[in-house]
Specification:
Number of helices: 6
Oligomer: single chain
Strand content: 15-25%
CATH superfamily: Formyl transferase, N-terminal domain
Distance between the termini: 50 Å
Helix content: 25-40%
Number of strands: 11
Structural class: alpha/beta
Largest sheet: 8 strands, mixed
CATH architecture: 3-Layer(aba) Sandwich
CATH class: Alpha Beta
Length: about 220
């Protein structure tokens, strides 16, 4: 008698805005051989278009409106309760514009991924594209990393580069970087669902071996 296949890893996505990275993940998850399934989308803004994208894909969504809480800790506690109710194997931050508390991050250590619009450790925080231009950089890009207590400081798994042209502005650079995010993030999520990447005590493990430097997609 043939054994039932193992259940696919359960993916929960957190977003705050338009959800373009969410859409890239939804599109990837619809591929026949994708090794995971998106089971829910959470948002901290009731009017975010990310919720519309989830509805169009028949994915459950929920809102924890951060403006209704008196503290970051209270918001995170409610968000944590909503996440645990759905029991995901991995939490994917896709433009989720909240700084998470230490207790929240530790609760999901090794199971939370984030995408950031710079080649970390350069340019943590906001306004990364203008900062790259102001510094005279020739290459910019995006990073996918494990989330730890340090803001944008978790171990980097992979990066995608873009070439900065002389006529680039912060807006054109943002468009180029976002296009690379849409390629990179689904690839890294696939690796996670396949069990190829893990957060070890000293950094990222890739196929069981320490990852000495982030994997790089070449500049476009």
């Amino acid at each position: 008698m043939k054994a039932d296949p193992a259940p696919l890893p359960r993916i929960l996505v957190l977003a705050s805005g338009q959800g373009s990275n969410l859409q890239a993940l939804i599109d990837a998850s619809r591929e026949r051989d994708f090794p995971g399934q998106i089971i829910a989308v959470g948002c901290n803004r009731p009017g975010a278009f990310a919720l519309e994208r989830a509805g169009q894909a028949n994915i459950e969504s929920f809102v924890v409106d951060h403006t209704r809480f008196d503290s970051r800790e209270a918001f995170d506690a409610q968000l944590m309760a909503e996440i645990r109710r759905r029991d995901p194997d991995v939490i994917v931050l896709a433009g989720f514009m909240r700084i998470l508390t230490t207790d929240f991050v530790r609760a999901f250590r090794g199971r939370m991924l984030n995408v950031h619009p710079s080649l970390l450790p350069r340019y943590t925080g906001l306004n990364t594209h203008q900062r790259a231009l102001d510094a005279g950089d020739r290459v910019h890009g995006t990073s996918v990393h494990f989330v730890t207590e340090e803001l944008d400081g978790g171990p980097v798994i992979a990066q995608a580069e873009v070439t900065i042209e002389p006529n680039d502005t912060a807006d054109t650079l943002a468009e180029k970087v976002q296009a690379q995010e849409h390629v990179l993030y689904p690839v890294v999520l696939r690796w996670f669902c396949e069990g190829r990447i893990q957060l070890g005590a000293d950094g990222v493990l890739f196929d069981g071996a320490p990852l000495r430097a982030p994997l790089i997609l070449p500049a476009s």
